[in-house]
Amino acid sequence: MTTTLTLVQGDITRQSADAIVNAANSSLLGGGGVDGAIHRRGGPEILAACRALRASHYGKGLATGQAVATTAGALDARWVIHTVGPVWSATEDRSALLSSCYRESLRIADELGARTVAFPAISTGVYGWPMDDGARIALDTVRTARTAVREVRFVLFDDAAHRVFEAAMG
Ligand code: ADP
């Protein structure tokens, strides 16, 4: 089965997709950037679902590189898939963890039966990952993933990020 990769510029909370991926933090209880935007527009149902996860299987939160799904609340999607990107380090290569975020999110999407999945550029905001390297890891991982997802859409917040992804796409 072929997976189509698309790049769009915009706000991921305005996208229509089966699943929207959140660049969450390990607490699952919200934060800034994409996370804040998803909870703001998606409404309290998402936070309630995250709290329920913390009260059950994710007592210590979600580990870096892992992914878990909740309702998408008021977003135009069926699910939000929360994944925790690594914080960029100049001294330690954490790219396997960043790659894992994309792979694990797609694995969860497959479990759910999601066919269209929208991703932000995980770790490239507050977590400081350089956009060009983040784009390369994102695209390489999705291209080589075994998944039934038909469309993976990268939603880049600004024109600069969009151009970096376009260049990395080749
Ligand atoms: P992280 O903590 O994983 O770095 P951030 O949310 O801070 O997560 O940033 C990840 C990327 O998402 C950054 O490139 C940022 O510019 C972008 N971003 C922020 N808000 C949105 C949004 N509403 N839609 C899409 N991308 C967003």
TrEMBL record:
Signal peptide: none annotated. Residues 1-170 form the Macro domain. It holds the Pfam family Macro. InterPro entries: Macro_dom, Macro_dom-like. NCBIfam families: PRK00431.1-6. PANTHER family: GANGLIOSIDE INDUCED DIFFERENTIATION ASSOCIATED PROTEIN 2-RELATED, MACRO DOMAIN-CONTAINING PROTEIN. This is O-acetyl-ADP-ribose deacetylase.
